Amino acid sequence: MKVVHWALAAVLLAAAGGCTAAAQQPSSGALDITGGVTADQSLHDQLPETVRARGSIRLVTDASYAPMEYFAADGRTIIGFSPDLAAALGEVLGVRAEMVTGSFSSALDEVAAGEYDGVLSSMTDTTERQVKADFVNYLNTGTSIVVQRGNPRKIGVFEDLCGQTVGTEKGTYQEEMLKRLQAKCGDRPLVIDSEPTNADALVLLRTGRVSAVPIDFPPASYLVSQDRTSAFYQLASEAQYEPGLFGIAVAKDNVALRDCLRGALQRLIDSGVYAELLSRWSLDSSAVLSATVNGTSTGV
C-alpha cells in the first residue's frame, strides 16, 4: 500500500466548518504526496492535448462546504477532501490540479462552455445533471437536516419542513428535494430561501431566519461536532435522506478527460491512497468500492 504523507503545519477551521467527534483536526490544506502517488504515463498520454499542453486540470468549486471544500484561515487557500483528492488525481495523471472558486449554480454551464475542465464541488450525480455532464463518482452519501441547537421547531423528519422557512444553497440537490416536498405540503406551505452559498444559508439558520438547512451528511456531521459551531447547530435526527453519489462533472464531449479521471481514481482506490484521504477527513463510511461513471462501471 502506498502511503500519503501530510504537511505538518496546522490550520484553523473556517467559521462554518467543524469535524466529527472522533476525528483529529487535519493538518494544513497543502497535500504533500511525494512518494505516495506515482504518475501513470499511459493515462497522461490519453489526456486531451489542451490539458497536456497547459500542464493542469482546472476544476471549479464552491469552497463553502467543510470538510469537503472550504477556505483555510488565510481566506484564499482551498482545503478539504476535494482538493486533496484533486491533488492526488493530478499526481497520477502527471499534471497539476487547480481548484478555482466559482458559483455552484452555474458551474455545469461553465464547464460545458469550456471555461473549466470539470466541477469538483460535492455535486450529486443525478439523471437531470447528466444531460449536461458526465460524472466520475467518488463518494456515496445522503442528506441530513441541520437545525438550531436545541431544535426549537421540533423538526424530526423531512416532512416536518412543511410549514417552515428552510434555507438551502441555490442549484443544489437539496434545493431540488425541497421543491419536491413543497409541492406536497398542502395547507402547510414550505418557504424555500435559496442562497448563493451553503455558508449564507447557515448564517440564516444561526440567526433564526430559517428553521433548518438540509445538507449532505459529511458537512452536516462536521458542522455539528466542531467546537466553533456545535453550540449553534445540531442534526434534527441521524437519518440520511436520498443517498446518492458525488461526482466530478466533465463536459459530455470530453470523453478522454472523463476516462482518464476514472482511471486515476481507480489507481488511488487500488493503491490505498483513496482510503487514506477518506480517513484523514473522517469520511470512511462514504467510500465507493470502485471508480464509476454516472453510477455504472461501464460509463455512459
Explain what you see.
With about 300 residues, the protein is of the alpha+beta class. Helix content is about 30%, strand content about 25%. The chain is built from nine helices and 13 strands. The chain has helices at about 40-45, 50-55, 80-95, 105-110, 175-180, 200-205, 215-225, 255-270, 275-280, and strands at about 55-60, 65, 70, 80, 95-100, 120, 135-150, 165-170, 190-195, 210-215, 235, 240-250, 290-295. The longest helix is centred in the C-terminal third of the chain and has 17 residues, at about 255-270. Mean pLDDT is about 90; it is low at about 1-30.
Q: What is the strand and helix layout of this fold?
A:
Layout: H1 41-46, H2 49-54, E1 56-61, E2 64-65, E3 69-71, E4 78-79, H3 81-93, E5 96-101, H4 107-112, E6 118-119, E7 133-148, E8 165-169, H5 173-182, E9 191-195, H6 198-206, E10 212-216, H7 217-225, E11 233-235, E12 241-251, H8 255-271, H9 273-280, E13 292-293
Parallel strand pairs: 1-5, 1-6, 8-9
Antiparallel strand pairs: 2-3, 3-4, 6-12, 7-10, 7-11, 7-12, 7-13
Helix pairs in contact: 3-8, 3-9
